[in-house]
User: Fold these one by one.
Assistant:
Number 1:
Amino acid sequence: MSESFDEKIRKTASHFRPEPNLKWSSVEKRLEVQQGAKKQMMYNWIAVAAGIALIALSVFVFQSSPTSGTEHSLYVSARHISDLSTAEAPNHRLGRYSVNEIYNAYQSAGLLPSASSDLNGRR
Amino acid sequence: MLLKIYTVDENKLIRRCQDNDRTAQKYLFEKYKSTLYGIILRYVKNSATAEDVLSDVFIQIFDKVGSYQFKGSFEGWMKRIAVNHALMHLRKHKNMTYTEEDFILDQPQSPEAIEELEEQDILACIQELPDGYRSVFNLYVIEGYKHREIAEMLDISIHTSKSQLIMARKKLKELLKRNNYPGLQNYRS
């Protein structure tokens, strides 16, 4: 008996097509906002990915560069010394130490190939 | 011209919606808004809330239409989205409570009792049912889901689904009688 009750209800309810007040314009507006937000999110992800890639590239370049760490200091010092005239080079001071002192310190630490005993001889 | 194509071939309409064509989306909205609104209104009592849910449903339809595989009815696919959204709304607002009651033998019902009922009368009575009864009743009687499926959808036991349905039927008959809708003079419980 309840089958027929169900069928009646189903049949009647399935014909029910009320007209909502909802307008297409409001749905369209929401779609625009949603799609704008999606694009923005995509751009954000691209920016983040590009940032990470840039950092990774910088680290890689820095690591593989011959001018890293102690080597970098030596490179800068050497460049600086090479710009000076022969006469003033040995006594030129880089901070607390003279170029000659720095050279000797590098050499005794085994960071430079052995050459003459001091900078004057090297030059 | 565009509208004529759509009336002939719904697959074209769907494909255009998948391509994010606004004209096609608008046409789809106009074509199905009443059907989907009718479904949502059976679950959500308030018409303003039902319209909010309807708006969410269309947003999801346009968002997910790209994943529609042209298998089975497209209208059925949209109806499932509408039902799921309506249930989600009820769950989110914690409106669904299931009172476990013992099975009560279904009262015999004369078919004539609801012979002349209008759709509006039916909806009004369904909307008066408690949320738990209403959801199970709608899903089983109108949407045609099985108790096993309803139990999964609502995260309840099959026993609860069955008992809710019996209670819903009983309550609905009471409401129809109490409201003295047309045709109910023949009602004998």
Number 2:
Amino acid sequence: MDSSEFAVTVSPVIEGIALIRVRGELDGASAPQLVTAVKDTIGEGCEAVHLDLAGLGFMDSAGLSALLAMHRDWSEHDATIVVVKASEPVRRLFELTGVARLLVGPDGLPDPADG
Amino acid sequence: MGDELVKSEALSDSATVAGDAIEMVLPADVRLIRLARLVAGGVGGSADFDVDGVDDLRIAVDEMCTALIESGDGGPLHLHFSVSPDSVEVRGETSASGGATEFEGDRLTLSKQILGVVVDEFDLAASGESIRFRLVKRAPGGLADVR
């Protein structure tokens, strides 16, 4: 599989929390796939979505905007979306734009080297 | 026609190299911006940028191409990459038959934040019936390198 090929993997919901792993490149072309996956997952009754973005090799402002929009929209429906892992390009974008405080949980992000 | 075929045609038919410059024409399709990123990565590598510098150039070109597609009228994107001893300059243009264009919105605000950090100069402007951008990324150690 091409390392830049976009893929979303949804794990079974456990105690109301679903883990969604995203890999490839998150941009204006691929973001709608993630938005749909999150919508479908929450529609199945989970209360929180944890996003593992450690497999993303690229993200742009369109991808970041999609994350922020999901965070805002779903919080109005009492569902939370939290980024629990992030690759270096994603971390850097969070730092450049200052959005980590919105998207990352209180425990912060683990070091990528820790897997 | 499948996506892969569309991408292959765009690559083989629209990218030309002349000296230290590359000209590229892309259909106004967000799915094809990855091709512009690919070229940006190659140009950054040929300019001896480090890994972060190449990533900076890729995201800057991506942001500008996204802006052209969002604000243009669906006409193709014309991109020009040029390498000089201490920098890479990328210029792009598309048509905007709708007249005055306002560059605003949450995504564009984020985009400008990003561009302000990853490149040394950038400009996006509408003029007449076209929208143009220009960005410059200087090599590490260059006079205006601020990272």
Number 3:
Amino acid sequence: MAGALIALSHEPLDATAVAAAVADPEHGGTALFVGTTRAESGERAVLALEYEAFVALALAQLERIAAAMARRHGARTAIVHRLGVVRVGEPAVVVATSARHRAPAFAACMEAMELLKADVPIWKCTHHADGTRAWDAGAGAPVALSAGA
Amino acid sequence: MEVEVLVFGGLRERLGWGRRRVALPAGAVAGDLWRCLDLGDGPPAGVRFAVGEQWCAPGARLWPGAAVAVITPVSGG
């Protein structure tokens, strides 16, 4: 099952549209995660986050995550991640999952987000309020997404 | 042989370029890129490689014209 909606976008994200993409009359539960730029990081004031991706591989990885959620949880999955500068309060990533019941919908949403953070080639640079900027060292441990996973 | 190397994020800024043709000895593997780019003896833990849309092991043999991405630890989300 291909992802219901898989995209990288330089434009502001519409969480409602991402949730609508996983609508299914057979699915009674929908989970929605919206990751938003926080005003602080490590006790330092933040102005914005900036995201960069290896687009071809990132899209392929997001599709693999959606396929894994279909296999593991019977879920439909939509994932949209921002690229470029994302100011405080703006969504940087939206993940929506739907499944027959709430438990697999929640599980798929959490799992898809964890896989995204570990295994999708997207990098984040923090723009601090003091004018400095720094690339996140990345804490994600690689997670195998084999065909049978 | 020459391969096309792609780098991103902090590594792109450190090197000052995002895409470049790099000469490698015949028989080179993906992990050899780290030393060829003067980044150290070998890729540290957490650094991965990809050719096209597929991950490849550091020991994967490269070929002339291959487009190889050096993937430092990711930080999306």
